[in-house]
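Need residues for this backbone.
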């Protein structure tokens, strides 16, 4: 559950990226965040994993109040959130297996549990046979599958994806969307910032449109609403 009340974000250089955002997102929803370049989409999703902090306003995520979250509670908060980026952000010297296991090792899982959970999640994204490969030895779509696997291996309640298909060709993008739908079908909330008119208009979900730091549209099974 995500609750935002009158959230503002002004960066240190004086640019106000969010201008009073209020929104409720329930557990299990699939939400696209759309809008023109520079509208505030990335800032909006970055608030959700505490990459940026609001200048003003209230933000509750998974029953935790981010306005007064203590530093010592940040790791606990982040464990409930999986994040996926346009450029994958995999560790190039680690294998596929190690990239995913890393997320578990830091929370002190036993080696046996780690192996089972990594292999289960690789199975889900269809990459069990590439566990020993290095990221460079994979296609873009495969690398994005690894980053999805890494994001969900801790079973987070919320998955945040900032332009996850931005570097992928259309066919690969559809395959990645199937993986997101599968994760959502298991009850995980998905928040996806995207510029893909084709995806938003074909795989219908809730659409939140942001322009000049404000929510200008919030529609169930909405359209993309801009020229691509
Ligand atoms: N770290 C930062 N410091 C200063 N200004 C920033 C920072 N990050 C973003 N901005 C500014 O905030 C505004 C919103 O940016 P944001 O990245 O949230 O937009 P966006 O909708 O995600 O854009 P795009 O679709 O191009 O990725 C822009 O004017 C941008 O220049």
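Answer:
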């Amino acid at each position: 559950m995500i609750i935002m009340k009158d959230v503002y974000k002004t960066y240190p250089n004086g640019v106000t990226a969010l201008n009073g955002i209020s929104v409720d997102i329930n557990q299990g929803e699939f939400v696209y965040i759309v809008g023109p370049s520079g509208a505030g989409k990335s800032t909006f999703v970055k608030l959700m994993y505490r990459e940026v902090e609001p200048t003003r306003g209230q933000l509750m995520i998974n029953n935790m109040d981010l306005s007064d979250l203590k530093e010592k509670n940040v790791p606990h908060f982040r464990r409930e959130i999986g994040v996926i980026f346009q450029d994958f952000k995999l560790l190039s010297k680690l294998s596929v297996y190690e990239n995913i296991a890393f997320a578990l090792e830091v929370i002190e899982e036993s080696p046996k549990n780690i192996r089972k959970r990594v292999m289960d999640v690789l199975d889900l994204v269809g990459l069990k046979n590439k566990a020993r490969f290095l990221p460079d030895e994979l296609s873009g779509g495969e690398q994005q599958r690894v980053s999805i696997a890494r994001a969900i291996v801790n079973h987070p309640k919320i998955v945040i994806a900032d332009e996850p298909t931005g570097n992928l060709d259309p066919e690969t993008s559809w395959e990645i969307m199937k993986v997101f739908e599968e994760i959502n079908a298991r009850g995980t909330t998905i928040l996806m910032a995207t510029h893909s008119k084709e995806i938003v208009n074909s795989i219908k979900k809730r659409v939140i449109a942001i322009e000049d730091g404000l929510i200008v549209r919030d529609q169930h099974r909405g359209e993309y609403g801009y020229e691509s």
